[in-house]
Design brief:
The chain contains 14 helices and 14 strands. The strands form 4 sheets. A 7-stranded mixed beta sheet has the order 4-12-11-10-9-5-8, sandwiched between helices. It has a 3-stranded antiparallel beta sheet with strand order 1-2-3, with no helix packed on it. It has 3 domains: 54 residues, Aspartate Aminotransferase, domain 1, CATH 3.90.1150.10; 247 residues, Type I PLP-dependent aspartate aminotransferase-like (Major domain) (Aspartate Aminotransferase, domain 2, 3-Layer(aba) Sandwich), CATH 3.40.640; 110 residues, no CATH class. Helix content is 37%, strand content 14%. Helix 2 packs antiparallel against helix 10, helix 3 packs parallel to helix 10 and helix 6 packs parallel to helix 7. The protein binds 4'-deoxy-4'-aminopyridoxal-5'-phosphate (PMP). This is Glutamate-1-semialdehyde 2,1-aminomutase. InterPro entries: 4pyrrol_synth_GluAld_NH2Trfase (IPR004639), Aminotrans_3 (IPR005814), Aminotrans_3_PPA_site (IPR049704), PyrdxlP-dep_Trfase (IPR015424), PyrdxlP-dep_Trfase_major (IPR015421), PyrdxlP-dep_Trfase_small (IPR015422).
């Protein structure tokens, strides 16, 4: 019933959906997620009538906010009223493919799918099919969707599934290494070089940290993959058409991957994923090649229209200056607040990405390695604590600033990490 408030909706949802949600992270808000009735510009309004500033924007897809510009809206509505899908090609998917090929130099051909997960599944299969090899190198702390080849934790010596339901024999073909660690990559190539189909990485780790690549790291990945005949795959599901504007993060770093996975913004707020790259490789997808790939909803006309109009709007207006400026304003405002309220926390991010992490500042204001992003606040030591503590009682859980206390920040951080782990992995 639409009159229910969030708590009532969650109660109903719990009895008919696992964990009450359709994606694990949505249960992160306690004691229950707020159920959204509608978006308005930069806000969302929940079932209880509360109005929130929306920093999340659908977890990334909404580059233009909730109030879509007129041409975007008109195109979506027209496509929805015309069918809305046919199971056969339509003109708008060619238009969007041409747009992406024109703006992202590494992409000569592209296949559209329906989610970021589907994109990385297909990219890994394509890399394996193209090279005739089995193994895939991934970055510890990276995320590539809910798929068997990348839900793997541990290290290259001892990879293991990070979710129930994935056989250990699958995980053995995945080699997790620390991000920004060239020696670790050299070691896996020394040991498995002949069987490595691809190195798969987010250009900037967006799901951990945010962790920025060291200068030269992506160039190094490009060289070592070339040297061994492996593919370099950039997962730009988050960064694509957000970081580096229409050229994506790869243009910012000046590195050309063999394959790129897209999602989120490229569908203008509708379910989407895509795999783009060198024509010679992408042609290995069926029907031109032998790597099977298909999908009922792939290239859905409403999604293609929303993606195309969104990107065209961004190309014709100063959208990236605007959202990046908002990102900068938000990061610097948060940095000021944290300097006062929680000096052991850090604001990270770039362009229109941001995050607050429960640790002190990394070497250059952005976290460069996963270790920095999970750094231990206790190093801060009691002396600096005394200086920062006006009330002198920071260890008291009844203190209103308890959550910000550098002394117990490690506990708070651990509790947060545990809570997220439980939400994400159900354990
Ligand atoms: N790759 C990256 C880098 C992601 O951040 C995500 C999801 N946020 C995915 C892949 C999976 O995308 P989806 O949730 O659309 O399946």
């Amino acid at each position: 019933m639409t009159e229910d408030n969030s708590q009532e909706l969650y109660d109903r949802a719990l009895s008919v959906m696992p964990g009450g949600v359709n994606s694990a992270v949505r249960a992160a808000i306690e004691p229950y997620p707020f159920f959204v009735r509608k978006g308005e510009g930069g806000h969302v309004i929940d079932a209880d009538g509360n109005r929130y500033i929306d920093w999340v924007m659908g977890l990334g897809p909404l580059l233009l906010g909730h109030d879509l510009p007129e041409p975007v809206q008109a195109s979506i509505q027209q496509k929805a009223s015309e069918g809305p899908m046919y199971g056969t090609p339509t003109p708008v998917e060619v238009d969007l493919a041409e747009f992406v090929v024109r703006h992202v130099p590494s992409v000569e051909k592209i296949r559209f799918v329906n989610s970021g997960t589907e994109a990385t599944v297909s990219a890994v299969r394509l890399a394996r099919g193209y090279t005739g090899r089995n193994k895939v190198v991934v970055m510890q702390g990276g995320y590539h969707g809910a798929q068997e080849s990348t839900l793997v934790e541990g290290d290259a010596e001892n990879p293991r599934p990070s979710s129930a339901g994935i056989p250990q024999s699958f995980a053995e073909h995945t080699l997790p290494v620390p991000f920004n660690d060239e020696d670790a990559i050299r070691e896996v190539f020394d040991e498995h070089g002949d069987d490595i189909a691809a190195v798969l990485t987010e250009p900037i780790l967006g799901n951990y940290g945010i962790v920025y690549p060291e200068d030269g790291y992506h160039e190094f990945l490009r060289e070592i993959t070339d040297e061994h005949g492996s593919l370099l795959i950039f997962d730009e599901v988050i960064t694509g058409f957000r970081v580096g504007g229409l050229g994506c993060a790869q243009s910012e770093f000046g590195v050309t991957p063999d394959l790129t996975t897209f999602g989120k913004i490229i569908g203008g707020g509708f379910p989407v994923g895509a795999i783009g790259g060198r024509a010679e490789i992408v042609e290995h997808f069926t029907p031109s090649g032998d790597v099977f790939q298909a999908g009922t909803f792939s290239g859905h006309p409403v999604t293609m229209a929303a993606g195309l109009e969104t990107l065209q709007f961004a190309a014709a207006n100063d959208v990236y200056d605007h959202v990046n400026g908002l990102g900068e304003r938000l990061r610097s405002g948060l940095t000021d607040i944290l300097a006062d309220q929680a000096p052991s926390y850090t604001v990270t991010g770039t362009d229109s990405m941001f995050k607050v992490i429960f640790t002190r500042e990394g070497p250059s204001g952005v976290q460069r390695t996963p270790e920095d992003a999970s750094g231990d606040d206790r190093e801060q030591g009691p002396d600096s604590l005394e200086e920062q503590c006006e009330a002198g009682c920071r260890q008291n859980a009844t203190c209103p600033r308890y959550d910000y206390c550098p002394k117990n920040a490690a506990d708070v951080k651990n509790a947060e990490t545990e809570r997220w782990r439980r939400i994400f992995w159900g354990r």
